[in-house]
Amino acid sequence: xxxxxxxxxxxxxxxxxxxxxxxxxxxxxxxxxxxxxxxxxxxxxxxxxxxxxxxxxxxxxxxxxxxxxxxxxxxxxxxxxxxxxxxxxxxxxxxxxxxxxxxxxxxxxxxxxxxxxxxxxxxxxxxxxxxxxxxxxxxxxxxxxxxxxxxxxxxxxxxxxxxxxxxxxxxxxxxxxxxxxxxxxxxxxxxxxxxxxxxxxxxxxxxxxxxxxxxxxxxxxxxxxxxxxxxxxxxxxxxxxxxxxxxxxxxxxxxxxxxxxxxxxxxxxxxxxxxxxxxxxxxxxxxxxxxxxxxxxxxxxxxxxxxxxxxxxxxxxxxxxxxxxxxxxxxxxxxxxxxxxxxxxxxxxxxxxxxxxxxxxxxx
Length: 364
Hints:
This protein has 364 residues and is α+β, with helices and mostly antiparallel strands. It has helices spanning 2-66, 70-83, 112-118, 123-130, 162-169, 173-179, 203-212, and strands at 101-105, 143-147, 151-155, 193-197, 245-247, 250-253, 260-263, 266-268, 275-277, 282-289, 295-300, 305-315, 322-323, 328-332, 343-349, 352-354.
């Protein structure tokens, strides 16, 4: 009897110890979980607090800028001037709204100028996107296209690149790519219609647009292309000394994809780091990075001629500076879409490329 009683006692003790051990384990586990939850909540609260602090800090300058002091007003003006400089073209990242087209129905008393003002657009934007032939006669109920931002439509011409278009309208290259959702800039074909946001148009372009729309009468032009040979070969000089021509002007095989492409200039190989000189007198209208050109300098003269110097390793002139023929403007490099160190040189008349070998002599 005592034997069974002892067994019962030991079983009771073991059971009590098991219950006690289980309760201890449960208590410790619950305490650890609660500590982790509290810690996570604390971290979350800290992160939210930091976020709110950062937001308040970032919002603070906006409040200050609403009532600028004299010094702040001057600073704002300076920044606006820098934004207008074309040194930003085709270079850094840019944010721009996606292109969208709306519809407007003309009302009584409407004309293109009043419609443009109502929609916060400029006159030439309305004129360009609608392609009107009789812009002076707007009738009630006429259906007009209204884009969500100022700009113009441009039809890509044969041999024209996105870099050419960017320089033509002084618009950031990346902006053109983003607005038009271009996947491969090298696959833009002639006849493609692109929207150029915030295009800076020349007086000649504006006149042509006004003539096409019937706003003004078209004047007869003796030479439609406007390309005339320079009076003498001294207008241009070699941009490099002791150069060798490695690729000529016109259609050639693309060294990257093997396809047929138009080469708007000539390639010269004086060696990496060799000095590059201005081929003519003029003003530097662009100096900076430009897509496939890499580091590029564009010099423009009053007579409609311009010269381009691409793939430079270094630029020694600034945008807007006056240069004389023979003045050093940079050094030969291998920047941009290039297969090796060389200078890509172009001559243009009214933005149309012409063969440089007609005016300068280079060894082949």
